[in-house]
Amino acid sequence: MNTENHTIGIVxxxxxxxxxxxxxxxxxxxxxxxxxxxxxxxxxxxxxxxLEIEASELKSLCNTMQFTSELSALKACTxxxxxxxxxxxxxxxxxxxxxxxxxxxxxxxxxxxDIVIYESTVYPGVTEEVCVPELEHFSGLKxxxxxxxxxxxxxxxxxxxxxxVTKILKVTxxxxxxxxxxxxxxxxxxxxxxxxxxxxxxxAEASKVIENTQRDVNIALINELALIFDTMGxxxxxVIEAAATKWNFIKLKPGLVGGxxxxxxxxxxxxKAEELGYKPNLILGARQINNGMGKYIAEKxxxxxxxxxxxIKNSQILVLGVTFKEDCPDMRNTKVVDIIExxxxxxxxxDVYDPWVDPNENxxxxxxxxxxxxxxxxKRYDAIILAVAxxxxxxxxxxxxxxxxxDAPVIIDVxxxxxxxxxxL
Length: 425
Fold this sequence. Notes:
Layout: E1 7-11, H1 17-24, E2 29-33, H2 37-44, H3 55-61, E3 66-68, E4 79-82, H4 97-107, E5 115-118, H5 126-139, E6 148-151, E7 170-172, H6 177-188, E8 195-197, H7 201-232, H8 236-243, H9 265-275, H10 281-291, H11 293-307, E9 316-320, H12 336-345, E10 349-353, H13 359-365, E11 383-386, H14 391-394, H15 398-403, E12 411-413, E13 423-424
Helix pairs in contact: 4-5, 7-9, 7-10, 11-12
């Protein structure tokens, strides 16, 4: 594609949109749009709260592309890429409101010949059955005559500095054969890992939603095995290491399943399946198992404390790590919160320490505050839960835990990285 003929508008500058904008800006004119004015000002000032883009790179990026919260700036674009979140509501039903709002916004500046590409994770059919009608209605243009659509599911892995956006093979699709080729060529021009052109938008949508559904089901199996082995008094990690000596065994570890993808995407698929009259029992069962792990870990903590003759009510418990994954500030849908809230139900006092989380950012989303480094203070804890395997925590020694514990340490190791833990998942 001729880079001189296209200005690309990236709508949504979060974990997906910002790295994508950075990659495209190396070859195309790019305008990054986000309704969050605070986010825009931070980016212009050289600060990325997601830590996906280094400050030096971000400052350079400000010289090669435009960051804005002014919708009118997108009028110059011929290609729009929508990368907004697709969350679920309290009933685990898809919340398409960000996608609908962004479609309406783009529609207001849409012109004949423009292409709108969606990257947000959805169930098959959303692009053409939900988004396109919004684009048509609010633009007055006709789909596949005046404007065209594509779908290329995001494959961003938050916190991963090795598998960055250009190094992960990209699935692409388009609403017509000609559009599909244009979309594929567009991504192929920046994705060094290559692209896979799907036969239709629905196939591309389905491919994305099953990526995380498969992983969710696999982790649920390991989690259920961990629960079974725990009742048998068998170390799950030792079992996994033994089983992994066979070449075709998939080596996964038990744990909490949070984040904006694995813990959310399966509900998009199950929603559509149930709407069509099919009950996806396996997928829903996996979700139930994974959603229950926080409660189980909290209960094991209480039992270990009782065994150690520790008081429960008004006890002091320290939780190390609150993000949904290691070495990353992303707290979206973190299941560590489930552990904290369950412990508070028992009357425990819970402190949370996470060196990756901005305390001010945390308060915007969760009621649990972040304390300063507990290993530099004199407070003592009745139990310590290692919930996230940040690199900083992997360096902790037995002495570090003893120094902040009342009597003998009660250490709950959710991630299996502490050799002498009282209990580990």
